[in-house]
Specification:
flat, mainly alpha, two-stranded antiparallel ribbon, 5 strands
Length: about 400
């Protein structure tokens, strides 16, 4: 084969190759378009089915919601209808009650009108009778004037004179009887109150004392009370204002003093020192001061308690303290505070019986001996001192 034929054959083969490639590409593209169309149709069919299923589900859901809404609406409507029926029943019942009340009011009004008519008739009758009585009284006065020959003023004076004489006699008799009865009742009630007071305040008669004793655990304690060169006993006497007597009497020391509060402070202080065992001047002063504060508090509490017991109000602090001091004071064998309390009770009872100020009487009775709380410290009798305290307070 020549070179030309070879070239020509090669060209033919190239052309044939291009044609075959073009045909193959055409057939491939056509086949691909056919497959793609089939896939598209399948996708379209699937989408259409899914859309129909979604629409069907949405329709079912919508129908269910519509049914639920309809049931809710029907229930609400039913409840509203029931409520309206109940309100209608209540309104009808209220209307019936109002009708009955209206009928009752009408009946009462008719009864009131009838009562007013009867009352007016009664008033007219009374007015007529009053006129008749006035006329009859005038007629009687005229007849009495004609019979007695006295003027109305003279007749009035005669009647008053006779009436006054009769009343004076009756008043004298009644006054005499009332005085006799009052005397009987006064004696009887006085005996009762005095016997009650005696029973409530009965005590054994004792002489007023000015000394107190303190028991000691051992006689060795006397030496400690005296102290070196007597410094302890001097410190105690200076702090308390009470004399300490240490004699041969076994187991006791004697505290002597006219002022009862000081003596009470001394007794309590001595007992504390003996119980503690530490006895020296500084300790003595400390214990005595603490005991003095305790006794003052006790005195104040006693004064407040007795004032509260008798319902005596408005007492000043000094009066309360002096009342408490009377607890430690005796007079003629009797505790002065108990005596003052009882006098306050009796004074209140007597004032109540006489219609007088019961609270003021109790106050006066309670405070009548308050001067005895300071008569050992100040000059003057206890009534004078009590009066001065009252004026100051």
């Amino acid at each position: 084969m020549s070179w030309g034929e070879t070239v020509l054959f090669s060209l033919v083969l190239i052309i044939v190759g291009f044609a075959a490639g073009f045909l193959a590409r055409y057939l491939y593209a056509k086949s691909k378009r056919k497959v793609a169309g089939k896939i598209a149709e399948d996708i379209l069919e699937q989408a259409k089915g899914e859309a129909e299923e979604y629409l069907r589900q949405a329709e079912i859901k919508a129908k269910a919601e519509l049914l639920a809404a309809r049931e809710t609406l029907e229930n609400d409507t039913k409840n509203e209808r029931n409520e309206l029926k109940q309100q209608e029943k209540r309104l009808l019942k209220r209307e019936d009650n109002l009708d009955r009340k209206s009928e009752t009011l009408e009946e009462k009004e008719s009864q009131i009108r009838a009562a007013e008519e009867r009352l007016e008739g009664r008033i007219r009758e009374l007015e007529a009778k009053s006129g008749e009585l006035d006329a009859l009284a005038a007629e009687q006065r005229t007849r009495l004037h004609q019979i007695s020959g006295l003027s109305p003023e003279e007749a009035k004076k005669e009647v008053l004179a006779s009436t006054t004489e009769a009343l004076d006699y009756e008043i004298a008799i009644m006054t005499e009887r009332a005085e006799a009865r009052a005397k009987e009742m006064a004696e009887e009630m006085a005996r009762k109150y005095i016997s009650t007071a005696i029973n409530r305040l009965a005590v054994d008669y004792t002489t007023e004392h000015v000394v107190s004793t303190v028991e000691l655990p051992t006689d060795d304690m006397k030496g400690r009370i005296i102290g070196r060169e007597g410094r302890n006993i001097r410190a105690f006497e200076n702090s308390t204002g009470v004399d300490v007597i240490v004699d041969d009497t076994p187991g006791v020391v004697v505290l002597s003093g006219f002022e009862p509060i000081r003596r009470e402070i001394a007794v309590r202080s001595m007992k504390k020192l003996v119980a503690d065992g530490r006895i020296h001047p500084s300790r003595i002063e400390e214990v005595v001061q603490k005991t003095r504060d305790e006794v003052e508090k006790v005195v104040e509490d006693i004064g407040k308690a007795v004032a509260l017991e008798l319902d005596v109000r408005g007492l000043k602090p000094r009066e309360i303290m002096l009342l408490g001091r009377l607890k430690f004071r005796t007079s003629y064998g009797q505790n002065v505070l108990d005596h003052s309390r009882e006098v306050g009770f009796l004074a209140g009872i007597i004032a109540a019986e006489l219609g007088m100020d019961e609270h003021l009487a109790r106050r006066c009775g309670l405070l009548h001996d308050i001067g005895k709380a300071v008569d050992h410290e100040e000059e003057g009798t206890h009534p004078e001192l009590g009066g001065e305290i009252g004026r100051r307070c």
